Predict the 3D structure of the following.
Amino acid sequence: MPMNEQPPWGKKKRPSPSEDFLAQLIQKIRDFFEQQRESAPGGDGPEQPGAKKQSPFKGGGMFFGLIAVALAIQVVFASFFTIAPGEVGVILRFGQYNRTTNPGLHFKVPYIEQLTKVNVEAVRKEEFGFRSRGPGAASIFDRKGYDMESLMLTGDKNVIEMAWIVQYKVNDPVKFLFKVRDVPQAVRDLSEMVVRRLVGNMDFDYVLGNRDSLAADARKQLQRELDRLEAGLNVFTIQLQDINPPEPVRPAFNEVNEADQDMKRLVNEAEKIYNEIIPKARGSAKQIVEEAHGYAVERVNRAEGEVARFKAILEEYRGSEQVTRQRMFLETMEDILPKVERLYIMEGSQHSALPLINLSQRSGEGQRPVSAPQAPASTSQMEQKEQQ
């Protein structure tokens, strides 16, 4: 059967091979009786002398026998039928649904049961806003004359032009045949109702940027409406082909889109600069704060260490003043003397400095005696001053 075999009744069926055979057989019987009528006495032709009269029952018996043979052949051919892969057969008995048959060879009662084949594997589709004129990869789409299907009004009072395809299969052949009179037309009407309702509740920009969610919502609502009508269909996809503004306002719309894209680009660039500078500044500020905390902790710890050291030295000094003073003097000299470039050694009995060789100069350089300003009186005098 063709793709849209709805409805199955009210259409003149093509004669089957058995019906052709029966028609040929009846024609041959008619030809036979015409020949008998022409050769019978009292006919149009002259009576042949010596011709034998034939019994009228002899020709009638042959006629009924031929009819019986023809009916038997017709019954045999009408009793068996084949269902191709991908199809199911719906059997009606006295016009009422009886059973459904799967692919293969089956039997039915002739003249009592009626067969209708339904293809349940074929993908059926309905096109809105355009029509495809050629199958295959090089399909030709015609959009002229379908403006009433494609033009819609959005929620913000803008006109939009939309083209889409609905693809579905038959999942219940009984409902497909007997619940809805014209299934393709029902699919078209419900699909337009669902899509127009969804677009009418959305803004223009939202429709353009969310076609996937729009198609998914349209498929769910269309399936719900078809189930409510018990159409026996399974809608497995709705493809939105084109969503554009009408042709007269398309240039202005493109300018608006370009301006919107420029705005988004500038916003993205500003966000990029913001993301590069602000986190870096925050990191630097946090680093400075952490360094300040570390410096404060270091100074406090160092001060506390100095205080503890001073207290320890004070305890030692109280225990033995002379030894502690001498040790402190020697430790101080160990720290100072390596840093002194010129060294003067004074004796207590002398009042002037002794000339010494400057050992810090390189070999080959001129040597000159080193003198010093007036030295202190003596070492014992320095010790006395320290004691005071």
Q: What stands out?
A: The first strand starts at residue 80 and ends at 83. Residues 9-15, 43-57, 365-383 have pLDDT under 50 and may be disordered.
